[in-house]
Design a protein that fits this description.
The complex is a heterodimer of chains A (896) and B (499).
Chain A: E1 2-6, E2 9-13, H1 19-25, E3 49-52, E4 58-60, E5 71-73, H2 77-92, H3 103-111, E6 136-138, H4 148-157, E7 162-165, E8 172-175, H5 191-195, E9 201-203, H6 204-209, E10 214-219, E11 228-234, E12 237-243, H7 256-260, E13 275-278, E14 281-284, H8 287-305, E15 310-314, H9 320-334, E16 339-341, H10 348-357, H11 369-372, E17 375-379, H12 383-386, H13 388-400, E18 404-407, E19 420-422, H14 429-442, H15 448-454, E20 455-456, H16 458-465, H17 470-477, H18 481-493, E21 497-501, H19 503-506, H20 511-524, E22 535-537, H21 544-549, H22 566-576, H23 588-597, E23 602-606, H24 610-613, H25 617-626, E24 629-634, E25 646-649, E26 658-661, E27 666-670, H26 683-693, H27 703-713, H28 722-727, E28 731-732, E29 756-757, E30 776-781, E31 807-809, H29 811-817, E32 824-828, E33 833-840, E34 848-852, E35 880-886
Parallel strand pairs in A: 1-5, 15-16, 15-23, 17-18, 17-21, 18-19, 20-29, 21-22, 23-24, 24-25, 30-34, 31-33
Antiparallel strand pairs in A: 1-2, 3-4, 3-5, 6-9, 7-8, 10-11, 11-12, 13-14, 13-25, 26-27, 27-28, 30-35, 31-34, 32-33, 32-35
Helix pairs in contact in A: 2-3, 8-26, 9-26, 9-27, 10-20, 14-17, 14-18, 14-20, 17-18, 23-25
Chain B: E1 3-8, H1 11-15, H2 18-25, E2 31-36, E3 48-52, E4 55-59, H3 67-72, E5 77-78, H4 83-86, H5 104-109, H6 114-120, H7 124-134, H8 146-155, E6 162-167, H9 176-183, H10 185-199, E7 203-208, H11 213-228, E8 233-234, E9 246-253, H12 263-270, E10 294-298, H13 299-311, H14 313-317, E11 327-334, E12 340-345, H15 350-357, E13 367-372, E14 379-380, H16 391-396, E15 405-410, H17 415-429, H18 435-438, H19 440-452, H20 458-474, H21 478-482, H22 484-493
Parallel strand pairs in B: 1-2, 6-7, 6-10, 7-9, 11-15
Antiparallel strand pairs in B: 3-4, 4-5, 8-9, 11-12, 13-14, 13-15
The chains are: A alpha/beta (896), B alpha/beta (499).
């Protein structure tokens, strides 16, 4: 702490603060253009100059650290004269057109009494407007060379797409190699636009429709990070989504999708009216009629065939309240546990694996641990594309010097920053992780005290890792034995190692074993329950954590409670008036089997395009066709909706209230910013209405009441209420009571079941291995520009940047097949064949292929098998074997 | 008997024909030609010397046909009788013109490594104390107390520290760093070694300007020699107090930017980035190259250190004025009779420097003005010449000593064009980080363009003064802060010419 005076006012500041920061904290305005709370001091604009008592000359507030007893004066005639002169210099280089001068500069000119520019015929800034990015433009004539855009691209986003070129008066901002934003490596995160103090960088939507005149804070839906945005409205229309500085989740940062990719909301093909299949065609009906149809059909099937003939699939893009209500509907109205959500195909293996070892299934730590860790190990995750705000944070840590281990078959962007990149063969995670365990044990790197005090069944793990020498590991995984040794030493020896994993761990035939193997390593080295450690799954969809938390699962009730818990049964009955079904329900893949067998007859799917995104699509589609009654609720006419008896339009995230739970267990508010089109009711109201018509009245005035009910039923959410969520930055569960501040780091003192349990897992090969007929291993995954099924992003201007999926192939393989980037190939598996364009890239190893899955026309998932993790039924998206045949086709569209 | 001739191989001597002489005389039988450094009396170059009974005999401005005369001993001047040299107090340049630049033997024979030897017998704190006692201030222009800088770098704990020599000697008319690097590179390196030992640095760089190819060659050769001799390299001399890591030194060649002589821009450039000025604090001694404590000083500063350690801080503090201790290497040029380097204790007047060492005005030239301290230095007229060359008096006059450059202008000089030229220089060399320098220098140059083209208005001078004050007070580094001085002093003294 330091005490100083600014303009005679006594001010307290933290040691290390600059005078500018101290002044800002005290609410004392000091003019500045180049300073930003997100960036290191630059000292360029010189507007913040101050007098410091006892010091010769003037000091820039932005670069002067506070000292105890310092006396600062930030306003004086002399200072204002210099400020006037500096603003005059800025204006002197702006274009002649009076309205073209930057508005913020003109405001400053007025503030400091500058009425005219005294220079005659001064040289002006030159350069044409670059409007090549779909969402923002750059007018170099309004630039003041403060480099905030360049600095934020470097310091915060870590992409370094922008740089300053030239020097002196010729200093200017360039993107990439000076061929414009679109041709550069810009990732359109929008940070530069937000930093620009003079509107030289501006959003096209704001320029077209005007600055927002009101803003509503809400949560982004484009991944599990849960970035906070202020949705800016002008005349009832969203014109801007601005990332929130005060949010601990994104700290003012964003990615392309969240920042700009909301233009799908007004897409012309949004569904607005319920559609009923009549005579093979979908015809518009009223909502009242739709509710009646649903009640009739579901009741008929339930009464004729029993509860088990009905099921629902909830959306992990929906709110916690909607997920809870749909599962309540299934349990209380259908009378079954046949409720699942899209987590089944992504992190169900994490749920299973972490539950088994730790007794809780969620990230053990917060994303703040990225800054606290002494080492970060990223396993089977590509955060710079799929979780870009977290990805940027990891990059920042790595660039600051935090050692980084990347375990991934592909050379993802983070691999470029990695101390070690362990490039294992797809499907061999368990072998590699056990190899790491072997080194940790044999080199005595284990944390004996932690193992003794906090765990059990250590020997079970020991037995499985002891035979896994680095050399044997190399044979299976292809990772050099020495790299395995180095990685094990780094992970075990850092003092605080944080593990972050993704679908490259879970989406395997033995995905839950991969998760367990990771958890074992954390236990063996004591890397759980402290800052900068833990096992941290990057949840894919925005509310995949919450959907599982609130019981949209066939295996657990809300809060991962067991159905057979007598206390829960009693509580459930007293709260809902209905018994809690005791039999475990169908998981999504089981639903397809049941439908094909004729046992499952009625299905309600909300916001999940199974007919595009599940594996072995031929089978899924056949199952959908077999159903008697299928209700699909979505924003758009999805592939799945084409099979529906009844299609219901859905309300988008900005059109309803609720909560999402992010990948660090943080429950955050989603707020209604605008009305949905054509009076579409939010999902929760639809559920209530159908339930009521089926004889089980559900009445809530607001999602807040649903939250209160969940809190009553769920110990880990007991302290959560909308009132508390409104007050702060969300709450991280467990929140056992109304005064509990939430839990940033789990398992600090004990695990939910007391001790954590080592579970030895042996390596078993993936479902398919390459051979003569199908020599390539195909891995599927996401790219930065598009999101999952692409239903949203394919309806945005992001399409100007990337408008198709591509198959990444190594240059050696491409040469042998004589294909070039942009040419199409036939991809053939034992299940199907498709045609898609290739992109030649060294990101993939020889013999491996990578394809994104955002465009339904490719039918990519028809290639994939139904192979899935035994315990969780998480599909093996990450390993399929295929062969390629070259086609002579012209190159297509835009891709990276 | 072999006759020995000494011919300098300094760039200035070569520019006036030293290589031509050496080449022409190389085949003469019975003649041994020794290439030495230059004495810095450039008006005498090429200055050929022979050994006399009481020291060297010199033949100034020698030509090829002078050989027989030289060999006969006709017309030579004993070096120690040349007033330009005899009047100097040569400390750092004591061996200039005497020794072979890359002869370790010569260097040792003339006192080389006495400073390092003394330093190695002292604890780190004691070395720094000696520097503090010496009251040595940085010779690059900023005149920061060297002992304090070393103390900071020493006290800042880090796994890696650096010592960097700023050899981006960019002021027009200055060359003393080049003379050290070309003429006695071992002295610079010895100073850096002492510094490295004192602060605990194991790596060092000499950031040499692109325009000094001969200096770069000499430095690289010297590094090779000292590495082989066990002075440099990992583990050499046990020279790092913490762990005996030795001292590894490299030469880095700049890319021609003046502002890279500013220490933060230099360190950026050394890291491979654009040479942009960074705000201070943090100071390089705390967080410099790659964010590590970095002792960065000008070449001459390091070259001064060995004699301080060899002869003691008290000795150094006995030279000069109250707050300006030791000697200053004046580099006198322009329209004087005797351009060259004069090493003298601080305290001499500018007038004496021009008269006693510069030898007064060149034939036919009348004094108009003198600029001290490089292109950012103030102009003085006759009335100002009594000012003593020391930091205090210059600071009081709003002037700088800079790097010791003195350029004398005669009556032919167009002061408007001169002022315009200085501001154009700043506009060209501005890094572009801060607004007063980036835009202000161009606006000022445009106004001066107007005067040069006869379009000036009286109001423009007020505008220039107002802008100049803002540049002085608000610029990020000395480039922008000092740029108005030559212009404003030109206007002050020669207002009539600005119309």
């Amino acid at each position: 702490m330091a005490s100083l005076t600014i303009n005679g006012r006594s001010v307290h500041a933290d040691a290390g603060d600059t005078v500018l920061i101290a002044a800002r904290k005290a609410g004392i305005p000091i003019p500045t253009l180049c300073a930003s709370p997100h960036l290191k001091p630059y000292g360029g604009c010189r507007l913040c100059l101050c007098h410091v008592e006892g010091q010769q000359g003037l000091a820039a507030a932005c670069t002067t650290p506070v000292r105890d007893g310092m006396a600062v004066r930030s306003d004086s005639e002399i200072l204002n004269r210099h400020r006037r002169n500096l603003i005059e210099l800025y204006l002197s280089e702006q274009p002649e057109r009076p309205l073209a001068a930057s508005e913020p500069l003109l405001r400053l000119a007025r503030q400091f009494g500058l009425h005219e520019v005294r220079y005659r015929e001064p040289e002006k800034r030159a350069g044409a407007v670059d409007a090549s990015n779909p969402y923002f433009a750059f007018d170099p004539s309004r630039c003041i060379a403060c480099a905030r855009c360049v600095r934020v691209c470097d310091e915060v986003q870590g992409t370094v797409a922008l740089s300053m070129a030239g020097r002196g008066f010729g200093t200017r901002v360039i993107a990439g190699n000076d061929a414009g934003f679109a041709a550069s490596n810009c990732v359109s995160c929008g940070a530069c636009v937000k930093e620009c103090p003079t509107d030289a960088l501006y959003e096209k939507a704001v320029a077209e429709f005007g600055r927002p005149d009101q803003a509503t804070r809400t949560t982004c839906t484009y991944c599990g990070v849960g970035c906070q945005f202020d949705a800016g409205l002008r005349a009832g229309r969203i014109v801007q989504m601005l990332p929130v500085d005060a949010s601990p989740v994104n700290r003012g940062h964003a990615c392309m999708k969240g920042r700009f990719g909301w233009d799908y909301l007004g897409a012309p093909d949004r569904l607005t009216r319920p559609l009923l299949r009549r005579g093979g065609k979908l015809v518009e009906i009223s909502w009242d009629e739709a509710f009646g149809v649903m009640a009739d059909h579901f009741s008929r099937i339930r009464d004729a065939c029993g509860p088990e003939a009905l099921a629902a699939i909830s959306s992990s893009r929906g709110t916690n309240e909607e997920n809870y209500l749909l599962s309540k509907f299934v349990r209380c109205v259908f009378g079954t546990n046949n409720i699942d959500n899209c987590a089944r195909v992504c992190h169900s293996a994490t749920v299973t694996g972490m539950m088994e070892v730790f007794g809780a299934s969620a990230a053990t730590n917060s994303m703040d641990s990225i800054e606290q860790a002494n080492l970060i190990m990223v396993v089977g995750a590509n955060p710079t594309e799929a979780h870009p705000v977290v990805g940027a944070r990891i990059k920042r840590a790595a660039r600051r010097g935090t050692p980084l281990i990347v375990i991934d078959p592909r050379r993802i962007e983070l691999a470029n920053y990695a101390t070690l990149h362990l490039r294992l063969r797809p499907g061999t995670n368990v072998a590699l992780l056990n190899g790491l365990g072997h080194v940790i044990v044999t080199e005595k790197l284990i944390d004996q005290a932690f193992i003794e005090a906090r765990t059990e069944q250590y020997d079970d793990w020991l037995r499985t890792v002891l035979p896994c020498t680095p050399e044997k590991t190399e044979q299976i995984t292809g990772v050099p034995a020495d790299d395995t040794r180095k990685a094990a030493r780094l992970y075990a020896g850092s003092g605080a190692s944080m593990c972050i994993h993704g679908l490259g761990v879970t989406e395997h035939k033995f995905g839950s074993h991969g998760v367990i193997a990771l958890c074992n390593l954390a236990l063996a080295t004591g890397n759980v329950g402290r800052p900068g450690t833990g096992i941290n799954p990057l949840r894919g969809q925005n509310n995949v954590q919450g959907a599982c938390d609130v019981g949209s699962m066939p295996t657990y009730f809300c809060g991962y409670q067991r159905f057979d818990d007598p206390a829960l049964r009693e509580l459930h009955e007293s709260v809902t008036g209905r018994p809690l079904p005791q039999k475990r329900g169908l998981k999504i893949p089981d639903m397809w089997d049941a439908a094909l067998e004729g046992a499952l007859k009625g299905l309600w799917i909300i916001g999940y395009d199974v007919a595009q995104t599940d594996p072995n699509l031929k089978k899924v589609r056949a199952a959908l066709e077999k159903l008697q009654f299928l209700v699909v609720q979505d924003l758009f006419m999805s592939q799945t909706a084409k099979y529906a008896t009844l299609v219901l339009p859905g309300a988008a995230f900005v059109e309803k209230d609720g909560t999402y739970t992010n990948l660090e267990r943080r429950v955050q508010r989603v707020r209604k910013v605008m009305d949905p089109p054509a009076g579409i009711p939010p999902d929760w109201q639809v559920i209530c209405e159908v339930a009521s018509r089926m004889g089980y009245p559900m009445r809530y005035n607001h999602p807040a009441q649903v939250m209160d009910e969940m809190a009553r039923l769920t110990p880990m959410m007991r302290g959560i209420s909308y009132e508390r969520l409104e007050a702060g930055n969300g709450l991280q569960w467990p929140v056992p009571d109304a005064t509990h501040p939430g839990t940033a780091i789990m398992h600090q003192q004990a695990f939910p079941k007391g001790r954590a349990q080592f579970v030895g897992v042996d390596y078993l090969p993936p479902g398919e291995e390459p051979g003569d007929d199908y020599p390539f291993v195909l891995v599927t995954g996401r790219i930065l520009e598009h999101y999952c099924s692409g239903a949203q992003t394919r309806r945005t201007h992001i399409m100007e940047l990337v408008d198709h999926d591509a198959l990444e192939i190594h240059p050696d393989d491409a040469r042998r097949l004589a294909v070039r980037s942009g040419q199409s190939v036939r991809v053939i598996s034992s299940r199907s064949e498709i045609v898609m364009p290739v992109e030649v890239s060294e990101r993939v190893a020889p013999g491996q292929l990578f394809a994104s899955f955002h465009f339904p026309e490719n039918n990519l998932n028809t290639l994939l098998s139904s192979s899935a993790d035994e315990a969780s039924r998480c599909p093996e998206y990450k390993v399929s074997t295929v062969r390629l045949e070259s086609l002579k086709r012209p190159a297509v569209g835009k891709s990276r | 008997m072999m006759r020995r001739l000494y011919i300098p191989q300094d760039t200035t001597a070569r520019a006036v024909g030293a290589d031509r002489l050496a080449g022409a005389w190389a085949k003469e039988p019975g003649l041994e030609i020794v290439r030495t450094s230059s004495r810095g009396a450039f008006y005498l170059e090429p200055l050929v010397e022979t050994d006399g009974p009481h020291g060297r005999i010199g033949w100034p401005n020698a030509a090829e046909h002078d050989l027989s005369r030289i060999l006969r001993g006709e017309g030579g001047t004993p070096i120690d009788t040349i007033p330009f040299l005899a009047g100097q107090t040569r400390v750092t340049f004591a061996n200039a013109g005497v020794t072979r630049p890359l002869s370790l033997e010569d260097y040792r024979a003339h006192g080389g490594f006495a400073g390092l030897d003394a330093a190695l017998r002292l604890a780190q704190e004691k070395i720094i104390e000696e520097l503090s006692i010496s009251k040595l201030r940085g010779r690059g222009g900023a005149a920061f107390p060297v002992g304090r800088k070393w103390q900071t770098a020493y006290e800042t704990h880090a796994d890696q520290k650096y010592v960097v020599a700023n050899a981006d000697e960019g002021d027009a008319g200055t060359y003393c760093d080049r003379m050290v690097m070309e003429g006695e590179p071992f002295r610079l390196i010895e100073g850096m070694l002492i510094a490295a030992y004192a602060v605990g640095a194991t790596r060092g760089y000499i950031y040499c300007r692109y325009e000094y190819p001969a200096a770069v060659r000499a430095l690289r050769e010297a590094i090779t020699i000292l590495t082989e001799a066990g002075y440099l390299g990992e583990g050499a001399l046990g020279c790092n107090a913490r762990g005996g890591g030795g001292f590894t030194l490299e030469v880095f060649v700049g890319a021609g930017s003046y502002v890279c002589g500013e220490e933060t821009a230099l360190l950026q450039s050394l890291e491979g980035k654009r040479g942009m000025v960074q705000p201070k604090p943090p100071y390089p001694a705390v967080s410099g190259l790659y964010g590590k404590p970095t002792l960065i000083s000008n070449v001459l500063t390091f070259a001064t250190v060995p004699s301080i350690l060899a002869r003691g801080g008290v000795w150094h503090a006995s030279l000069g004025t109250e707050h300006s201790k030791g000697t200053i290497a004046l580099q006198i040029g322009g329209r004087v009779k005797q351009p060259g380097l004069a090493e003298v204790p601080f305290g001499l007047t500018v007038e004496a420097a021009i008269e006693e060492f510069g030898g007064g005005m060149a034939t036919g030239a009348r004094f108009k003005a003198v600029q001290v301290g490089g292109p950012l230095g103030s102009l003085f007229t006759k009335a100002g010449l009594k000012i003593r060359i020391c930091y205090d008096e210059f600071a009081r006059a709003g002037a700088i000593l800079g790097h010791g450059g003195i350029v004398v202008f005669d009556q032919e000089t167009d002061m408007v064009e001169l002022a315009r030229h200085f501001m154009a220089f700043t506009a060209d060399e501005s890094c572009g980080v801060c607004t007063p320098c980036r835009v202000g220098s161009v606006r000022a140059r445009e106004i001066l363009d107007g005067f040069a083209q006869g379009r000036g208005r009286p109001d423009d001078l007020n505008l220039l003064a107002d802008l100049g004050e803002t540049m002085k007070q608000t610029s990020l580094c000395a480039l922008g802060q000092r740029a108005p001085y030559p212009v404003l002093t030109a206007i002050e003294h020669f207002r009539k010419e600005f119309k």
